[in-house]
């Protein structure tokens, strides 16, 4: 299979020239190792995986001997399985002036991240890799920064193919895992089935001590049914026959493994009575569609949940874009006690870009009237609009456009 260029490569190499160690976190099979091995080709860089039992035993029992055996510069895969190495990595970073000595991959588990931040503070850059965005999967990248303004969107439109709903839902249904890009429906189904059985179930039992796989599978299915909605721990707990505190813990575990993403509600003293409940999304829409038994692209596209899946797709495309961009943005959503909701706030440099998400190709332009609440609260409002299935960028007013969803990643 040909290598697919990842948008994170630029940021990774930039951090590698500054930090002595760089950690790439993210879900299993999202392409972390593939990217690092690609970037290391032509370099004399050792590679070792902590999935290898012999190497892991050595790392756990004798970190000094481990690094005599596997000498830096090095790629260490699944580093969370051998936290005993962190202290030795710190010592070696402090002894050398060389940058980019350690390239690490791991899933972002809470215990590991706490350990890394305490041990390697100031020595390590931490980046997250998600499954392929739609544009990555299609080998397209835009040269300009996304600021949602009309000139920016028109420039992107000149480089993109026409927005098309079957094309978008093919990606949503298939997902962005590199292994499923060329799979047929039967292969895709088996891939996700084994992904859950081999990776997820094994990791949750190792990380969270969860041994009841039947309840956990029910829990995953319940999460998929709630995608793009406010998280409801009571519903999740009832579906899996577990307590609410356990449901919270399982959600946190799946967040740490790069499976779920919680979009936090916007919080500001100037705006009263805001919700405090986050919204739940899957980092990969293909896994979500598999769990909800949408067996073909068309049944998903024409089904009752298609709007939720479209919203999940747009939110995660924005998430991926800003995770890899030079400047990070804060993503939140707005909802007050009058049930007035704005799907996404992209907050960058103190400016809020408000976005509504609609599966329609011609949504109601009056949706943007809601954005005036930002002006009333004296918050700085930037360009925004409605991300939808329209085929071309259409201005709504001076600040907002109808934005084709294929221009945002």
Largest sheet: 6 strands, mixed
Total helices: the number is: 17
Structure classification: alpha/beta
Number of strands: 14
Beta strand %: 15-25%
Q: Give the total of domains.
A: 2
Silhouette: globular
Supply Rg.
22 Å
Calculate the mean pLDDT score and round it.
Answer: 94
End-to-end distance: 23 Å
Helix share bin: 40-55%
> Which stretches are poorly predicted, pLDDT < 50 over at least 5 residues?
none
Strand order of the largest sheet: 9-10-11-12-14-13
Model description:
Helix content is 42%, strand content 16%. The longest helix has 24 residues, at 185-208. The model has no long low-confidence stretch (mean pLDDT 94). α17 links the parallel β11 and β12. By secondary structure, it is an alpha/beta fold. It has helices at residues 8-16, 32-40, 53-61, 63-69, 85-95, 110-119, 134-137, 150-157, 165-174, 185-208, 213-225, 233-240, 244-256, 285-291, 297-302, 306-324, 372-376; strands spanning 21-25, 46-49, 74-77, 102-106, 124-128, 229-230, 260-263, 279-282, 330-335, 341-348, 351-357, 384-388, 394-395, 400-404. It contains 17 helices and 14 strands. It folds into 2 domains: 8-128, P-loop containing nucleotide triphosphate hydrolases (Rossmann fold, 3-Layer(aba) Sandwich); 137-407, no CATH class.
């Amino acid at each position: 299979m040909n290598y697919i260029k990842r948008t994170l490569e630029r940021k990774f190499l930039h951090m590698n020239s500054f930090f002595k160690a760089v950690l790439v976190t993210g879900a299993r099979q999202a392409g972390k190792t593939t990217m690092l091995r690609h970037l290391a080709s032509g370099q004399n860089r050792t590679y070792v995986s902590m999935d290898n039992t012999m190497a892991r035993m050595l790392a756990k029992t004798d970190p000094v001997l481990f690094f005599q055996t596997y000498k830096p510069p090095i790629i260490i895969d699944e580093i969370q399985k051998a936290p005993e190495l962190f202290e030795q990595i710190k010592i070696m970073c402090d002894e050398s002036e060389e940058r980019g000595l350690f390239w690490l991959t791991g899933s972002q588990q809470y215990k590991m991240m706490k350990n890394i931040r305490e041990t390697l503070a100031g020595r390590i850059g931490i980046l997250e890799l998600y499954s392929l965005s739609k544009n990555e999967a299609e080998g397209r990248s835009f040269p300009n920064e996304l600021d949602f303004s009309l000139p920016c969107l028109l420039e992107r439109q000149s480089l993109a193919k026409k927005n098309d709903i079957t094309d978008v839902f093919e990606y949503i249904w298939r997902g962005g895992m590199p292994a499923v890009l060329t799979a047929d429906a039967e292969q895709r189904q088996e891939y996700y089935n084994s992904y859950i059985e081999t990776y997820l179930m094994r990791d949750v039992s190792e990380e969270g001590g969860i041994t009841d796989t039947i309840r956990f599978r029910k829990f995953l299915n319940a999460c998929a049914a709630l995608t793009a909605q406010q998280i409801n721990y009571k519903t999740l707990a009832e579906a899996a026959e577990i307590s609410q505190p356990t449901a919270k813990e399982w959600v946190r575990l799946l967040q740490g493994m790069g499976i779920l993403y919680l979009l936090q509600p916007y919080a500001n003293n100037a705006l009263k009575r805001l919700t405090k409940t986050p919204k739940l999304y899957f980092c990969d829409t293909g896994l979500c569609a598999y769990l909800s038994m949408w067996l073909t692209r068309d049944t998903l596209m024409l089904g009752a949940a298609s709007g939720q899946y479209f919203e999940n797709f747009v939110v995660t495309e924005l998430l991926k874009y800003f995770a890899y961009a030079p400047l990070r943005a804060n993503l939140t959503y707005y909802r007050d006690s009058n049930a007035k909701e704005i799907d996404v706030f992209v907050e960058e440099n103190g400016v809020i870009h408000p976005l509504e998400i609609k599966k329609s190709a011609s949504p109601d332009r009056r949706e943007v009237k809601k954005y005036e609440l930002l002006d009333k609260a004296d918050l700085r409002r930037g360009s925004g609009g409605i991300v939808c299935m329209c085929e071309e960028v259409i201005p709504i007013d001076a600040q907002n456009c109808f934005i084709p969803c294929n221009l945002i990643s």
